[in-house]
Amino acid sequence: MAVKRPSGPKGALIMGNASQFSEDEPTFLLENVKKYGDLVYFRLAHLQTYLVAHPDLIREVLVTQSDKFEKAPLDKQILGKFLGNGLLTSDGAFHRRQRRLAQPAFHSKRIHNYAEVMVDYANQIIGGWQDEAVVDITEEMMHLTMLIVSKTLFDADAITGTGDTAEIIGNAMNDFQAISNRDYQRGFSLPNWVPTADNRLRNRAVTQFNAVMNQIIAERRKTAVNNQVADKGDLLSMLMLSVDEDGEFMDDKQLRNEVATLFAAGHETTSNALSWTWFLLAQHPEAEAKLHEELDTVLAGRQPTLADLPNLPYSLQIIKEAIRMYPPAWILNGRRALEDVQLGGYTVPKGSTVFVSPYVMHHLPQYFDEPEAFKPERFTAEFEKSLPKFAYMPFGGGARVCIGNAFAMMEAQLILATIAQKYRLTLAQTEPVRYKTQITLTAENGIQMRVLERETAVSPTPELAFA
Ligand code: HEM
Question: Which of 90, 230, 268, 394: disulfide with 223, CB 3.0–4.6 Å?
Answer without folding.
Answer: 230
